[in-house]
Amino acid sequence: ATDYPGLGTDGIHPYLIGESEARSVLDSVRAAREMPNSGASNRFAVWGHSQGGHAALYTGEVAARYAPDLKLVGVAAAAPATYLVELFDADAATEQDLLAMTVLSWSRLENIPVTNIVEPAAMPAFEKTARDCLESVAEFEAIEKAESPLQSGKFLKVDPTEAEPWKGIMLHNSPGQAPAGAPVFIAQGTADTTVNPA
Asked: pLDDT tens for residues 108-142?
């Protein structure tokens, strides 16, 4: 189980930043091998869902370069975040919570004032929403059913899928720009309303 930076510790969580996620996954494999009596070899497979699926795909792309001491034998991803421009465009009207979390993370990582993209009147709701942490499927389902304080994506001044540096960040962090590194299995539910099946 991967321990991403900024979750439960100080610092920024690099949400949907592929290189950081992949390094964290590979570090977790190395850590597991160091556990007493684990019996773990250097061979491993990686699996993830949603952001974890994004991390799994990037792990395949990064593994040989970052962790040549390990042997990746397979990548499995369920409903992975893949083409981020298209995903954000499809989710703009319905997934304000995840969009807010992403904007906050990227603005901090790239040192971009969040006021460049968030409407001043929406700032309190944006801050509250972006700092929430989804810790269970039940919590995610409750948020999906509740009315978001960020109505229909109107909290943004610009469309991040069209404006720089946001579009560039999305393109840079969309998997599939390097060889997969191992056989890949992707699972996707056709009724998924968060990660567009297309």
From this structure: 899 999 888 898 888 888 887 776 665 555 655 55
* Percentage of residues of the chain with pLDDT beyond 70: 87
| ∠ CA 103-6-56, rounded to 5° | 80
- Is 0.85 surpassed by the pTM of this model? yes
